[in-house]
Amino acid sequence: MPVRQGLDWLARRRRVPVSLLARIAVAFAREVHAYLATPERRRQARAQVAEAISEHRPRVVLAHSLGSVVTYEALHAHPDLEVELLVTLGSPLGLPGAVFDVLEPGPVGGKGARPPGTARWVNLADPGDLVAVPQRLGDRFPVDLHDEAFIGLGNFHSLAGYLGTALTATTIAPYTGAS
User: Fold this and answer.
1) Is the peptide bond before 105 cis (omega within 30 degrees of 0)?
2) For residues 141 and 36, what is the distance between their CA atoms, to the nearest angstrom?
3) Which terminus, N or C, of the chain has the lesser number of Cβ atoms within 10 Å?
4) Residue 77: per-residue pLDDT
5) pLDDT digit string (tens) for 12-67?
6) Contact 138, 123 (CB under 8 A)
């Protein structure tokens, strides 16, 4: 959280637009940049996710970090796919100037759309997660619930950290038969 707050302070103090910081962050994140900047790689990744959902027909899809972007776009590109619960973990979907503005489909009126066939959408983000910007996807997307998952000071973005929280477990439990 202090690093996130520091970047916000720097942006305001030096009048550096947050969108510029976001572009710089994505440029340094090789995987995100490679996905967003390479149409063929983007198409292939979406196709793989769509194929896995089509083949296995999961009730719940957990999508972490860049995986939330790929899953979001795959569900839009394949509106016939149905998911009872989409859980985004540490998602950069709302990152202005870097991810949000280049999503496919693109935002309309400053808002992203719920993927067709998605019955419920929950977003979980650690308050210190530098990738989950902005934390509250509900401000930009029609999520049903946004909550803060505290996964640890040195572990603020890891998938294992998100999967290890009681919040993630209680979110998916009604869909898995676990109690």
Assistant:
1) yes
2) 19
3) C
4) 97
5) 555 556 565 555 555 547 788 789 989 999 999 999 999 999 999 999 999 999 99
6) yes
For the beta sheet containing 60-64, the strands, ordered from the edge strand earlier in sequence to the opposite edge, are 60-64, 83-89, 118-125, 145-148
pTM metric for this prediction: 0.84
pLDDT tens sequence across 79-131: 999 999 999 999 989 887 788 999 999 999 999 999 999 999 999 998 877 77
Residues 77, 149, 167: CA angle, nearest 5 degrees: 85
Locus of tokens 């309309």: 108
- Could you write out the DSSP letters of every residue in 34-103? HHHH-HHHHHHHHHHHHHHHHHH--SEEEEETHHHHHHHHHHHH-TT--EEEEEEES--TT-TTTTGGG-
The torsion angles phi and psi of 64, rounded to 5 degrees, stand at: -105, 135
The pair of three-digit structure tokens given for residue 38, joined into one six-digit string: 């390479």
Looking up tokens 């916000």, which residue turns up? 8
8 Å CB contact between 87 and 60? yes
Closest CA to 89 of 152, 1, 30, 161: 161
Provide the 3-class DSSP secondary structure of residue 145: strand
Residues contacting 174, CB < 8 A, separation 6+: none
